[in-house]
Amino acid sequence: MAAQDDEVPLNAIRAFVTVAREGSVTRAAISLGTTQSSVSRYLSVLRDYLGADLIERRGRRSDLPQFGRLFANAVSEPLETAGFTAKRMRRRPAAGTNRLVVRTSLSTFAFSLLIPNLQAFSSEAGGVIVDVVSSLSPPISSDDFDILPVRRRTGRQLGDLQ
């Protein structure tokens, strides 16, 4: 589950925090939408990574030893903050939202032509919200955008100017 020994097993931390909150591996598995054995495996990965037991099982209950309580207290809030932030920053609009995402690597185009005309375009297009994303990296299949302006290449090469 963790690809390398130095890679922090974030999914295992998420599973552990859920077990700590729910008080049971079974309830954590239901909450996470996975199996008990998957949650147990995550707990094992995290125990191996940290070198300490995080859970004491007592029948169907899962109690936290001191180290487990310290770790749960330290990581629960940042994990919730990361989840909250990711939800707030999602680029997928809610149903019925009138939004357009323009991705460009042409910063001069974006700042000199596109951005100065956004308000007029938005008014003419019925109040559409336009998000401009500027990036020098090439787009990949998982990028979420509606329009990708590109520089048109001509047959000329750099030394061909006359």
Secondary structure topology:
Layout: H1 10-22, H2 25-32, H3 36-50, E1 56-58, E2 61-63, H4 66-88, E3 99-104, H5 107-114, H6 118-124, E4 129-134
Parallel strand pairs: 3-4
Antiparallel strand pairs: 1-2
Helix pairs in contact: 1-2, 1-3, 1-4, 2-3
Question: How would you sum up this structure, described in words?
Answer:
With 162 residues, the protein is mainly alpha-helical. The protein has 2 domains: 10-88, Arc Repressor Mutant, subunit A, CATH 1.10.10; 99-160, no CATH class. Helices cover 46% and strands 11% of the residues. It has 6 helices and 4 strands, in the order H-H-H-E-E-H-E-H-H-E. The protein has helices spanning 10-22, 25-32, 36-50, 66-88, 107-114, 118-124, and strands at residues 56-58, 61-63, 99-104, 129-134. Strands 1-2 form a two-stranded antiparallel sheet. A two-stranded parallel sheet has the order 3-4. A hairpin with a 2-residue loop joins strand 1 (56-58) and strand 2. Helix 1 (10-22) crosses helix 4 and helix 2 crosses helix 3 (36-50). The longest helix is centred in the middle third of the chain and has 23 residues, at 66-88. It is elongated. The termini are far apart. The mean pLDDT is 82.
Question: Descriptors for this entry?
Answer:
mainly alpha; two-stranded antiparallel sheet; 11% strand; 2 domains; 162 residues; two-stranded parallel ribbon; Arc Repressor Mutant, subunit A; elongated
How are the strands of the biggest sheet laid out side by side? Answer: 1-2
Low-confidence runs of at least 5 consecutive residues: none
Number of helices: 6
CATH topology of the largest domain: Arc Repressor Mutant, subunit A
Amount of helix: 40-55%
Can you tell me the CATH superfamily of the largest domain?
Winged helix-like DNA-binding domain superfamily/Winged helix DNA-binding domain
Describe the global form: elongated
Give the class from helix and strand content and strand pairing.
mainly alpha
Encode the helix/strand succession as letters.
HHHEEHEHHE
Count of extended strands: 4
Tell me what portion of residues adopts beta-strand conformation.
5-15%
